[in-house]
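Why do we bother with holo predictions? Because pocket geometry can differ from the apo form. Keep that in mind while you read this record for 6-diazenyl-5-OXO-L-norleucine.
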Amino acid sequence: MDYRSTKAGVFAVALSFSVVPVAAVFAASPDPVKAEHGMVVTTQHLASEVGVEVLKNGGNAVDAAVAVGYALAVVYPTAGNIGGGGFMTIRLKDGKTTFLDFRERAPLGSTKTMYLDDKGNMVKGLSTDGYLAVGVPGSVLGFETARTKYGTKSREELMGPAIRFARDGFVLDQGDVASLQNGAKKLVKDKTAAEIFLKPDGKTYAIGETLVQPDLAATLASISEKGPDAFYKGATADAIVKASQAGRGVLAKADFEQYSVREFEPVKCNYRGYDIVSSPPPSSGGVIICEILNVLEGYPLGYLGYGSAETVHAMVEAMRHAYVDRNASLGDPDFVDNPVKKLLDKQYAKEIREKISPFKAGVSQELMPKGFGESTETTHYSIVDDEGNAVAVTYTLNGSFGAGVVAPGTGVLLNNEMDDFTAKPGVANLYGLIQGEANAIQPKKTPLSSMSPTIISKDGKPFMVIGSPGGARIITITLEAIINVIDHGMNIQEAIDAPRIHHQWLPDKVYMEPYALSADTRKILTEMGHDVEIDKSWTIWGQAAGILVGGESLADIEKGGGARYNGAMDSRSGSGEALGY
Ligand code: DON
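The structure, written out:
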């Protein structure tokens, strides 16, 4: 029997099996989904079903991650992709951990100033819309590398469901339609994208209608049959390069031919006895989550309480300091010497704590590094299998529907990941990040990311799988889910659903999700000197996907006898689902 979450999912189970999870007495969130053999949590329920089927058929968590990755490229086109890139953090049942980097690279024809006019000013839209915004995609080679190194199933088996969804279509639910409506303004500008994702009359599809993607089906089928060369050396690359040349882009065949996946040691740190394994550069995610956790370890957050002014003050100041380091010093490790060791050092965290006043907000401008100048959509999924292998994947087109362009005949939406670079020091990117030289554009370089697919273990056993979309906020979204479980005792669903706060050094503001802080807490924070702003733009607060092992919360785990796998899809998600078996 399958165990499901989501409003739609619980309803479906209630109808077919009369098994409705019993709501926790005090929780405002739905109960986590419980299962004994495997758990798949993704932002689209059909993709979760694909992952569970792979597990049931004897595939491991990596097999399921590959099948889910391809499925989301069809059923979650806003972020799922084969025209973008991402990261996969893996923890095998024997405790070995590794990290695959299949993020985009800057094309050979890119230059440091490619998004500036002749006066040195940013040209609006150039790094976000159209072919010049596109980085060389990595997802196809990423999934194939994962499958061949750590999976057990054939490519044909893992790609089958995605090909069927693209060829035969899938029925759109409310979340799918909302996401297409969200992207309509961008998609209408590209003839090929509009033909796929909008109806012939230019309107968006309605709930219950079927989205068919025959070109994408053909592209996927050729990858399934011939392998990644069909994408990187064959007709797909040719079509993308041709469309790019016609659309003022710089992509060349050599970019595709030279693309490679990198395997890195993940970043590791320990927080209150929990072993955190997360994304290393070219992501800032793992390093900055660890840096913030190291600082926060010096504060009794559980005692101070969730959402209290003291807790929020400590979090904001830790975030402020860590994002300076992110924005000033991190970049692609093939190009930049990243000070990872220093940023992960507990002594360095202590030095940061010594600079934090317990009574007064810090001032971001005073932390401006020397020589720094003046100045949505991604998707995450979490999987564990019966053997205890765990996989966390975050991948993306960057902005919702990426650059909004599809090369004719391919069906492949292309990313706008180039916007994650520092196009101009001191000028904010799509996520308001003000970054420095370490993340400047260079051919074949990967832009600095915030994506943070994270796996936590305790006493050598898997404990939590977690991650989220959300641009620069991915780091704080993931962090808050972790401390909500470890410090505040929430169950995994509550930890993910709880309202969030965010600070990223610049702008010097504490962003809060509506209702995250009470009026009197805000008053205290304001009196301390914090500039607190409610941010109602719902897409930017992410959609975390998490799994807790051994119980739904710390108390449940300690009591013993909790469910083995406890899955939670963010209640902010329109179409996602935690599904176990
Ligand atoms: O890699 C990064 O940090 C960004 N490209 C992620 C973008 C993202 O999360 C958009 N979703 N809301």
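Residues 1-169+212-580 form one domain.
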